[in-house]
Amino acid sequence: MISVTGIGITKFGELWDVSPRSLARQVSNAALKDAGLVSSDIDLLIVANMLSGMLGSQEHLGALFSEELGFSNIPALKVEGACASGGLAVHAAVNNILGGQYKRVMVLGIEKMTDHKPELVSSALIGAGTNEERLTGITFPGVYALLAQAHMKKYGTTEEQMAAIAVKNHYHANLNPLAQFHSLLTVENVMKSACVADPLKLLDCSPISDGAAAVILQKTGDNEQGTEVQIIASEVATDTLGVAQRKSLTSLMATEIAAKKAYKQADVSPKDIQVAEVHDCFTIAEILAMEDLGFFEKGKAAAAIVAGKTTLGMSKNLVVNTSGGLKGCGHPVGATGVKQIVEITEQLRGSLGKRQVIDAHIGLTQNVGGSGATCVVHILKKGQ
Amino acid sequence: MVNLISYGTYIPKYRIRLADIAGVWKKNADEIIGGLKVTEKSVPGVDEDAVTVAYEAAYSSVEQSGVSLKDIGALFVGSESHPYAVNPTSTIVGEFLGLGHNYLASDMEFACKAGTAGIQVVSGLVDSGQIQYGMAIGADTAQSKPHDVLEYTSACAAVAVLLGKTKGIAELLSFTSFTSDTPDFWRRDGIRYPSHAGRFTGEPAYFAHVLGASHRLLKQTKSKPEDFDYCVFHMPNGRFPLEVAKRLGFTDQQLAASLTVSTIGNPYSASSMLGLSAVLDDAKPGSKIFMVSYGSGAGSDAFMWKTTSSLVEFQKKRKSHHQCVFQQNEKKCMIDYVDYLKKTHKI
């Protein structure tokens, strides 16, 4: 089995006075300490990052961070899958361990975005789309606005319902000291915020953030120490790069496929999941995730979320995005998928204090790249 | 002791409403005005630049001072819109003022605090006895790219202050500075409009430096905010000075008289000096004034002034000549966005 034996995470936000190297050291040291390991115990380093080349003119991150973290001469590589880079890197780590060549793998998710001008960041992010999309001048808020409009037209989803997701995730973020935002929102706040791409408003959108997260995965036996949180499914699916070629704009097929395979691999069903971290880059994305992961019927998720069926303290079955999600906790893109694993690991350890989901035994992460061209789903369970 | 002998201000008469700028770009005017706490900004005439507005302010200052031009031994002009990259603004202004040739002239550049940097340099020359009187000017026809957030506040004004050792209208009791290499706002040579680092211009830039200089001055003078009658801060928008005053422990009442930004905007190098002028137009003798500028790049200059009995007569002269900041502010001609583009040479 594959166990998460060490975790580390920084604060997410505008970290202007911290370099990428410092962020990496912080989470690496924390994860090693958490796992009771030293740097020489790590066999393989996988770095998840999307934008270092386009924004910072720095590639070759495997060697860069291997040197920085003192992992002398071990294999080190970078995995890039847009905003799903973190989830993909964890998937690669799982498969590398299952392949038998490596026993202890560190996944480092890291992104530094706020040092760069917002228009440059937006331009770099749409690198995850198609050339045709870029030629129209569209950026990701516009792409997800199209998905939101399609969902509103087909299912009658309202702007107020989408706003309620931002309200919920800021409520959760308020309980997370490492989250970018600690302000509580109201639906009215969201509705009155500036329109970015109709119907999405500023407070429907996740922010530009800096941050890093690290996990150490190990192959463990059933009764070994460090098996308290196990990864029981790791699946990836892809879809067309742009939205124009999709059969449906009201669901992300990559999520549906990856989730179906993950449930089968883990031998669980959606109703078994008690806590989930999903990819709410925009509020509509959380509605799509809830439906595509099978938690709610198509067209029913928005009303359920408004009714508190995924809110901490209100839901008895499933709580979603206790970290605050991308909306409240922040979205340093390469780090997000790794942060999701960190959050679920802590939930299954029972170490989250005020935002702890009581008796959480099985958790899920869903990490999306682009407008749904890549989706990574992990299922974790509490071990012995 | 270095004294403020006189000051002169110039605000061009043209104004554009922020609502009109917002309307052009299909933005929510209420949201922008509410966020920036600015409703109008000043716009230079088509034939005005940093030289002409600096001259207007300097002439006003000299006219009211009673100081002989030949006794002015230094002239520094701070601006980030000097018309020439090479060819000083200060020599043109000095020539038109009639300063002769026996004076030191130099242009200053430090974003929005170039004018107050000039005050510190002149103070040093006066205090050391090198010169009898010296003038420092902050003048800008502030640049901003259409559709950039700066377009809502970048404004035009100039302020000249004349310093000397003879009795003046205020005493310069103390000053200090706080400086770092913080690239929050810049304009490279040959580039028409400045660039800025968005939200980075807030906490690590404006607030860190204004607070740094403020704390240094309070410590240096063994003062507390309640010891002052007025406070003045650089005004890139209406929100920042309110916030920094609150963090330091000043009251809204101490700040109110200096807030020229709401109807004039941010005339860059002239901003905090215009706030000081508005306070001096209104203050009673014996008033203590706490003043802090901010220039991107970055640094803040902090000053402690105390007004004298001579201020009363000086205020009367400014008022009778319709030179008070509030009078210049009221004398205005509203223009639309197209006229704004013409007057700022964008079309």
Distance between the termini of chain A: 12 Å
Largest interface: A-B, 7 and 9 residues
Uncertain stretches of chain B: none
What's the number of helices of chain A?
A: 14
Q: Mean pLDDT score of chain A, rounded?
A: 96
Determine the fraction of residues in helical runs of chain A and give it as a percent range.
25-40%
What is the second-level CATH architecture of the largest domain in chain A?
A: 3-Layer(aba) Sandwich
Percent helix of chain B, as a range, is 25-40%
Output the structural class of chain B.
alpha/beta
CATH fold assignment of the largest domain in chain A = Peroxisomal Thiolase, Chain A, domain 1
Radius of gyration of chain B: 18 Å
Cα-to-Cα separation, first versus last residue of chain B: 49 Å
Gyration radius of chain A, in Å: 19 Å
The biggest sheet of chain B, with number of strands, parallel, antiparallel or mixed sense and barrel status, is: 9 strands, mixed
Give the tally of structural domains of chain A: 2
Beta-strand percent range of chain A: 15-25%
